[in-house]
Amino acid sequence: MSRVVFSMGANLGDREAALRTAIAAVAPAAVSDVYETPPWGGDDDQPAYYNIAVIADDPARTAGDWLELGQRLEAEAGRVRDPERPYAPRTLDVDLIAVWDESGAVRSEEPRLQLPHPLAHLRAFVLVPWFAVDRDAELPGKGRVRDLLRDATVAADARALRRLHPIWSEHHE
Q: For a FRET experiment, which of 10, 47, 77, 151 has its CA 20 to 30 Å from that of 90?
């Protein structure tokens, strides 16, 4: 069994369409509502993001497979990476937050694949949607998401998030 928590976001183009396409491609077990969030990382001269958390299971996928899927979805959505602007606007951003396999939480220090995501514990736009779909969520090595949300900086950032509406249901076609 392999389980992944994705954080997905978009702030260019048809944000909801990009997210819906990505959700459909991962066959989700759970999807949060859409949260409108300010840009993060010091690049504030851009539109707000739509962010969601997606949990998916697939016994055949490895952490590397989940990464390749996320990168393929970004490419199909027209994402362009600018090494000079790591927090630049994007048509789709798909981050692996954590992956579990039959041995437990997958850990990776590879530059291409760092697991669990090294900044997830600082990002309200990751933690709030994830907590909304999994009240018992735990970020490996950092603790329970509910406790991480109590950090003063994260809590302040969380107040800037605006929950909009559901984007997916189990009966979605």
A: 151
